[in-house]
Amino acid sequence: MKKILDCIADAIKPAFTASGYDDSFAKITLSNRPDLCEYQCNGAMAAAKTYKKKPIDIAKDVADYVSHSQNKDMFSEITAVMPGFINIRLNPEYVAKYLNSMEQEPKYGLEESGKGETVIVDYGGANVAKPLHVGHLRSAIIGESIKRMGRFLGYDMIGDVHLGDWGLQMGLIIEELRDRKPDLPYFDEDHRGAYPAEPPFTIGELEDIYPAASAKSKEDEGFKARAQEATFRLQNGYGPFRAIWRHIMDVSLADLRKNYGNLGVTFDLWKGESDAQEYIPGLIEDLQEKGLAYESQGALVVDIAQEGDSKELPPCIIRKSDGAALYATSDLGTILDREKAYEPSRYIYITDKRQELHFIQVFRVAKKAGYVKEDTPMVHLMFGTMNGKDGKPFKTREGGVMRLEELMAQINGAVYERIMENRTVSDEEARKTAGIIGLAALKYGDLSNQASKDYIFDMDRFISFEGNTGPYILYTIVRIKSILAKYSETAGELGPDVKILGAASETEKNLMLQITKYHEVIPAGFKETAPHKICQFIYELSDVFNKFYNSTMILKEENKERQASYIKLIRLTKGVLETCIDLLGFEAPDRM
């Protein structure tokens, strides 16, 4: 169904044309002065230049025409004010009619604008053999939200974790494993036959092996050289090392799936850098044949600078002087793989802002070489850092990088303690509820900030049941659930003929008008890759609902028709809130 802003514009366009003005000036916006009006049209200001008339005269022409037109019943007020604004208030009956239509439609009337389009979302970016830590948090939950938004709008969204599974860390693990368990058959040159089906390490051992090997390589040049050689042999197909690599992948993926799952994050593809390797030789040859790649100081590079660049951009290195491919080469190979399999109409990459130059280079090479169509959007959503209260990147008390499991356990524990302060549920239910609220607190605390900005991780604020927080949103939903349950116990279920009536109070109308923004917010949130817009919407919706609740005796309303209207309105409010939190990647409990 149409956005309410478009409905208002459609009602005003005839007034512009009938008054002798082009209807393209009939653009409607939300008022920035809600004390004066709900919506406004500033078209007369722009039209004044075209028609050489005073803006106020044009505004009066339009407002007067609407006041006597067939659309007049849509408005309770439409007036021209100096220097040429058209202030608008909607008729409460019209708003109620709009909400009744919305309530009847799938997805509350949201248009699926993405039908037929495939979008690749590259997020997660975990490295195998390493545990997830807080540095992986933002990419995962921002990416998951954007994927869900796009899917809800009808796009074929394909989320790829794009694992780091092919670099030097593999050689380091192999050689550290050799030092610890030299009798394994993978290190026996005379071994023939199959290798063990069971991995020679657990996830706990694997997570100890890599940091030990990394530290050793910084002190022992011989060990580092062995690791580089092992990496080379692995990447060139040496069977025993490929067998170890498969074990690393199996053990790591099982752990990653579990931990991402606990975060409410899923992926359609679990591909990694290794999947791009088959494309790299042909990619390098193709770039050379097209005259794009050339040698510079022994390396193979592609110029990416363009006219109009505000700063000097260095060439993209495709192959180092020692013959090794780089991340850029791997990412280009991944693009070739994705083009072959999916032919996406859009790419969205989600990483921290330190990788800005890398993706400028990769995107420009991909388009310069014709691997991606020139008009295909390639978006790099760069996120800021999650910092501690000291303003520095978030760490453990000991100064190390905190594991994601530990962070989630801390938040769930803090929420559990808060629930138990006024214990009204069993310990089992309290812990389950704490997990739901904790995840909402963590995700909302992150997503409510503009992605590109750094933010302070403040657990006390994040788990608060008041203010712009996840628990506050959940508390609002639970409050509505409670009202609906009590109404159902005494009055039964709403009949199909029940309608939302025109607002009887200012707080009720504010709630109704806020709900109508739903059609604007979700498409804008996806288009701008901005989950924080949905967070702001549901915070404002929760706020206006609670003001309505506090000023209205919903369950004690004596007029049964009016009471049923209230119930239908708050049921719609709950549905919109639940839809939005699902897009953000969390859910609400039944009780808090």
Radius of gyration: 29 Å
* CATH topology description of the largest domain: Rossmann fold
End-to-end distance, in Å? 35 Å
Give the CATH superfamily of the largest domain: HUPs
Low-confidence stretches: none
As a percent range, the share of helical residues equals 40-55%
The CATH class label of the largest domain is: Alpha Beta
Given the structure, what is the number of helices? 20
The CATH architecture of the largest domain comes to: 3-Layer(aba) Sandwich
How many beta-strand runs? Answer: 13
Notes on the structure:
The chain is α/β, with parallel strands linked by helices and 592 residues long. It folds into 5 domains: 4-90, 2-Layer Sandwich (Gyrase A, domain 2), CATH 3.30.1360.70; 122-164 and 271-384, Rossmann fold (3-Layer(aba) Sandwich), CATH 3.40.50.620; 168-262, no CATH class; 404-462; 470-584, Isoleucyl-tRNA Synthetase, Domain 1 (Orthogonal Bundle), CATH 1.10.730. It is built from 20 helices and 13 strands. It has helices spanning 4-18, 43-51, 55-67, 92-104, 137-152, 168-180, 203-219, 221-235, 239-262, 280-289, 327-342, 356-368, 404-421, 427-447, 459-462, 470-491, 506-516, 518-527, 531-551, 560-584, and strands at 28-30, 39-41, 75-81, 85-90, 118-122, 156-160, 293-296, 299-302, 316-319, 346-352, 378-383, 386-387, 455-456. The strands form 4 sheets. Strands 1-2-4-3 form a 4-stranded antiparallel sheet. Strands 6-5-10-11 form a 4-stranded parallel sheet, with helices on both faces. Strand 1 and strand 2 (39-41) form a beta hairpin. Helix 1 (4-18) crosses helix 3 (55-67). The longest helix has 25 residues, at 560-584. The relative contact order is 0.10.
